[in-house]
Sequence to fold (311 residues):
Amino acid sequence: MFDFTLKTYREFLQRLSSLPCGSFAAFVKDLSPTAIVLRHDVDKLPENSLAFARLQHELGVRGSYYFRIVSESFQPRIIEQIAGLGHEVGYHYEDVTLAAREMKKEGKREKGEGRKENGGGRRESGDRKSKASEEFEIELFERGIESFEKNLAALRQYADVKTICMHGSPLSKWDSRMLWEKHDYRDFGVIGEPYFDIDFTQVAYYTDTGRRWDGEAVSVRDKVVRRREKGERRQETGRSGERAMEEGKGFPRFHSTFEIIQAIDRGEFPQRAMFTFHPQRWTDSPAAWTRELVWQNVKNGVKKGIVVRQK
Fold:
């Protein structure tokens, strides 16, 4: 059996059904003993996500599906079907990147040294910026939060959106989590964002980024951080009070889905974890499976270079 197929995903779900699992919203609300969060980033090919959602529904499992606002992800018919199956629908936001693209089309460009980010969305201490660069950033973030509010409202026409999750946009210099340096997503009726509201020193994190479960070497922004301490205010601390965490630190690491299944069978899988799936990578079609494998290998080479330059 090959990895990253629906057949493999079905086997994974069948094993996982022995553990308490569900959506991120349920985890945040703490209304159930949910310990395993099933997160799905609908970056493209939303039909694949619908296949995931149907399979989960068949097996009595719920998860969270985060849709981007761009056309390759935002398909109202599919959004409504996934929500109708009892799954959570969330917003996969990338509004700083979208605002930057619009400004570029208008001929507005950042000047001077600008901002250097450390991979977690934070401004490095000691960064120097020109006045023009500061003015560019002010307008960028004003447009970014306006974009976020507008796009969140658009998605809420088709589902009851309670949580959000940043889309990485690895080729963009901008990390949209920067929005929360000056704003609070709770002001928009949002109850949680995984990168801020899960303490990943206590919860294992596994993502299929790079088409494998140990792809941190090719992960540009899908990196976990410490949860904000109770009582901290985002407006005051921004992300300065958070520290980047190595993915899987203190928890077992896995390369393939089959290794995860074996760990569950042996009773050796962590009791609390979040999985991040990108359903466009999972298919039973031999041709599509091969295309995705080849294209992912190409992307991994590019992203590995970006990660090296960030260090």
The chain is about 40% helix and 10% strand. The longest helix spans residues 131-155. The radius of gyration is 19 Å.
